[in-house]
Write a structure and sequence with these properties.
Number of domains: 2
Number of helices: 5
CATH superfamily of the largest domain: Butyryl-CoA Dehydrogenase, subunit A, domain 3
Structural class: alpha+beta
Order of helices and strands: EEEEEEHEEHHHH
Strand content: 15-25%
Strand order of the largest sheet: 1-5-4
Distance between the termini: 35 Å
Radius of gyration: 21 Å
CATH topology of the largest domain: Butyryl-CoA Dehydrogenase, subunit A, domain 3
CATH architecture of the largest domain: Up-down Bundle
Largest sheet: 3 strands, antiparallel
Shape: elongated
């Protein structure tokens, strides 16, 4: 699942370069897409994030020059982890944007949609849903801002990035789910776009490390403290 693989001029590939020690070592390489033996195929049909095209990459006897090495030989894992730490903040921000759009639309709809002679925003059941959505969104936003601030300051932020990504992504799924409930049958149609937010939110729990991986990262950090 290589995001934007069909459109890239270059890709970063992590390959095993040393199997001699107790742990294999990886090296990061900058690979031009027009290099002989590189093929992008099997474009993925996904339930959401339709604008982000992804594909499967194939490599067959690909040869690269020494200047294709990114970082140092054998340091690929370190490069990958540093990339993931920053990338998880981006996914958290993506989840926030999706959730914010769903909440905003739900507020507008709840004020306009009437049942039993009054806007459904007057009903406690709707109010409770909106309260939970707003609270979770704000908590996720603060976690994301903390992780982003630590990254800007050059401070180690593996734990904070994982926590932000975990909470924001799962909160986004819950918020978009509630948005569908608030919209009722219309939420299940494409008329209001709520179903798209739900589909787009779901991927944020998967890429840049699944929720399960984030929990492992957080647990390892907590247990080392």
């Amino acid at each position: 699942f290589i995001t934007n693989g069909p459109h890239a001029d270059f890709i970063i590939v992590f390959a095993v370069t040393d199997k001699s020690g107790p742990k294999v070592k990886h090296t990061a390489f900058i690979v031009p897409m027009d290099a002989p033996g590189v093929t992008a195929a099997h474009h993925d049909e996904k339930m959401g994030i339709k604008a982000a095209h992804s594909c499967t990459m194939f490599f067959e006897n690909v040869e690269l020059a020494d200047d294709a090495i990114l970082g140092e030989v054998g340091s690929g894992f370190k490069v990958a982890m540093a990339t993931l730490d920053g990338g998880r903040i981006g996914i958290a921000a993506q989840a926030l944007g999706i959730a914010k759009a769903a909440l905003d639309k739900s507020v507008v709809y709840a004020k306009e949609r009437k049942a039993f002679g009054q806007p459904i925003a007057k009903f406690q059941a709707i109010q409770f849903k909106l309260s939970d959505m707003a609270t979770e969104l704000d908590a996720a936003r603060l976690l994301t801002l903390r992780a982003a601030a630590m990254k800007d300051q050059g401070v180690r932020h593996s734990l904070e990035s994982a926590a932000a990504k975990l909470y924001a992504s799962e909160a986004s799924t819950r918020i978009t789910h509630s948005a569908i409930q608030i919209h009722g049958g219309y939420g299940y149609t494409t008329e209001y776009g709520i179903e798209r937010h739900y589909r787009d939110a779901r991927i944020t729990e998967i890429y840049e490390g699944t929720s399960e991986i984030q929990r492992l990262v957080i647990a390892n950090s907590v247990l080392k403290a």
